[in-house]
């Protein structure tokens, strides 16, 4: 346990996985939509989903902006491969321990609703799972090694995703 704690003490990761994972999901969705078109709704249902997709993207961008602003004000890094200086628990972080990743998942789903490419829906879930395994679990170990009981108490109060 001591070796694992020391491993994450400096920073959670050496590579910024989350943005790469979500960009891959977006690009792969577009490529799959082009190469293997999936059936989609027609008519007013399609228009309703398009509108909902735009709303979802706007909400996701709002969550991203709010989270980044909160982190900036707390003088801690937004980069997922750098060490945290301060534990952020206010703003959108009072509702989710990972609001940026929630928003990124929403962006992929929103892209699917806007474009009518159904491939984005399973890719959003795959990206969320990969982010949890490659980033979130390591970030949690990093935060616990830095902030101890304060982070453990925060984990008890606030869900990982939503």
What's a quick, concise take on this entry?
The protein is mainly alpha-helical. The protein has helices at 2-9, 17-35, 44-73, 99-115, 120-157.
Structural overview:
By secondary structure, the chain is mainly alpha-helical. The chain has one domain. It has helices at residues 2-9, 17-35, 44-73, 99-115, 120-157.
What order do the helices and strands come in, and which of them pair?
Elements: H1 2-9, H2 17-35, H3 44-73, H4 99-115, H5 120-157
Q: Could you give the order of the helices and strands? A: HHHHH
Return the domain count.
1
Task: Work out the radius of gyration.
Answer: 17 Å
Tell me the number of helical segments per DSSP (H or I, 4 or more residues long).
5
Task: Detail the poorly predicted runs.
Answer: none
What is the 3D form?
elongated
Biggest sheet architecture? none
Q: How much of the residues is beta strand, in percent? A: under 5%
Mean pLDDT: 92
The portion of residues assigned to helices is: 55-70%
User: Gap between N and C termini, in Å?
Assistant: 29 Å
**How many beta strands in the DSSP annotation?**
0
Structure class? mainly alpha
